[in-house]
Amino acid sequence: MKFGVFDHLDDAGIAQEQLFDNRLRLVEAYDRTGFYGYHVAEHHATPLGLAASPGIYLSAVAQHTKQLRFGPMVYLLPFYHPIRLIEEICMLDRMSHGRFQLGVGRGVSQLESAAYDVDFQKSGKQYHEGFQLLMKGLSDEVLNFDGEYYRFKDIPMILKPLQKPHPPLWYGLVFPDQATWPAANDVNIITLGMSDGIRAVVDRYHAERAKHGKDRSTSPLVGVTRHVVVAKTDDEAMKIARRAYVKWENSFYWLWERHKADPHIRHIYPGTFDELVKIGNGVAGSPETVRKYIAQETEKTDTNYFVSWLCFGDMAVEDALTSTELFAREVMPTFAGK
Fold first, then answer.
1. Residues of the chain whose pLDDT is less than 50?
2. What is the number of helices (H) and of strands (E) in the chain?
């Protein structure tokens, strides 16, 4: 069992420069206390995500950490010029001395795609072509590619990743049918949603790996994400979580509401933290309460990587730091060796 952190870098209702300063304080704490990985969302034109250029933010993360692995969850490949992205990945992998984690995806928001003038109906094919190009560019000495969306001839690949043939791959998924490609290609995954749905994804992931003769003992990381707040008592933790979740929930649905669109996922992320706890998609409590929750949740979902949203909404940085320290000191050791 390994532990990671997922971060939207959503609007906290404070000056944006202060938000970045606070997050880097937290990142230093994640590094110091032994978390395995730190995964940052990429969003555009919405208060849900202020790391619109993940590479810029992650270059600061590289300089503020020594052991923590980190990366985007995920780079939205149709939003990038491939050569620029290949060079950025190589720089981040070198700057971090081989700690960069490469999350890739198409992007799930038609509204955010429209903000970048990306045709959502075509972006699936564009993503798959972009991924092929990305893999070639990270490993070839000279890049040649002739596709529908991208064409390059005799481009020298001067920048190289430190990790060979490329940094570890990560993919976010929600539905079982999405598990085929990452399972066949040894890609780490992170999932979200209700426990039963996550278990269906994980079962499919391992079944697909078995078809390819891959031993489960060598499985990549299979992660589940949950909102988590730890404090000395359950009441204190719930008080912090209730307040912070309101701000996060507003940011989460802001873009849909602006366009009067139905997100179709309110059953996963309801209006209050109490409702979130009731359906099992989050926890706030003492270390003992959180330990019990994680044990039950990882058993139900059959996951080996628990990824916490340790800071969200307008949570005070001091509360997030306390939650992080308690989680690392009094929760994580329980699962050592499992």
1. none
2. 11, 12
